[in-house]
Amino acid sequence: MFALARRSSVAPMRSYATATVVQYTKHGVPANVLKTTKLEFNEKVSGDSVRVKILAAPINPADLNQVEGTYALLPERPAVGGNEGVGVVEAVGDKASGVAVGDHVLFGTAGLGTWRTQGVFPASSLLRVPKDVPVEVAATLGVNACTAYRLLSDFVALEKGDVVLANGGSSGVAAALAALCRARGVKLVLSMRMRPDWEPMVERLKAQGATAVVEEGMVRTPAFKELIADLPAPKLALNCVGGRSATDLARRLAPGGTFVTYGGMSRQPVTLPTSLFIFRDIAARGFWMTEWNKRASSADRQAMIDDLCALVRAGELKAFVERHDFAEFEAALARVNEGQVGRKVVLAIDPSAMSK
């Protein structure tokens, strides 16, 4: 007689690895609730999963808003901080597509937690980036540069010689806007709060491609009107500040112009006079990069990254960063909290991968 074979009840073998992560278990002041710890994860990948070694990741304002619990997208806790970064693919599941072992990749989906040494992510959340793009530049492409790209592409059909206004001139988005405007033949006029490093910042923005940079309060004065008198009336105004800065910007739009809000750094409401809508027929819109990524196809997201990388390779799009070793996260966070840093704070998670 033959014995009947029994179905094995043994669970599939798992192989666990340990990652160093910056994690929070509750919302609060980032310096108080963020903790560096070790996290075990199953390094065996299957299906659409991809194992990625993280090379670098920035600390963005939105990352800290998530930790505080004030952002629109709040990951389930405990959560690893960080939404942006670049890594290298170490293993791919049998159904993963679009990426291969050895590829450098960005994170095209928010809330995945990039302040870690390694992890497993869906292939659909990753976007390829050429290996010859410097790691510290690639790490910062997914938010600021992509936001600038969409702001110039999605609201107004801009032609060479057109004028765009924007506030928040010291931001990473503004720097990317300057480079993209120059590449498209569009004139960019930026406003910025007075700061200790005003002159070097203005020189940098003009070198990137800004036509003019003025102190924020000047926008409401006759001097600003005179400054732009010889330029075409602005078709597009981009607001990331709010409050009076936003109102002043909107008042300078051409009739039929478009006003887009993509941030609120002052934490003051956007107040636009009724007369701008009735007598000037301006349009007021909003933009959130995370929502665009949700709606866009993988092909469209990859095409945007490819365009930006082409500008990086051509030397037209630069990233101004300040590196901090991942092991010194607390110091990096303190640097961000100082304000007016003038450069994006980037965590060198694998220092050997960074440019010399």
What do these coordinates show?
It is globular, with a radius of gyration of 23 Å. 30% of the residues lie in helices and 24% in strands. Helix 6 links the parallel strand 10 (187-192) and strand 11. Helix 4 crosses helix 5 (172-184) and helix 5 (172-184) runs parallel beside helix 6. It is of the alpha/beta class. It has helices spanning 30-33, 61-68, 135-138, 141-153, 172-184, 198-208, 222-227, 243-251, 274-278, 289-295, 298-313, 329-338; strands at 16-24, 35-42, 49-58, 79-80, 86-92, 104-107, 118-122, 126-129, 163-166, 187-192, 212-215, 236-239, 258-261, 283-286, 321-325, 344-348. The strands form 3 sheets. Strands 3, 5, 6, 7, 8, 15 and 16 form a 7-stranded mixed sheet that branches.
Strand content: 15-25%
Structure summary, number of beta strands: 16
Rg over alpha carbons: 23 Å
Indicate the percent of residues in helices.
Answer: 25-40%
Shape verdict: globular
Calculate the terminal CA-CA distance, rounded to whole Å: 72 Å
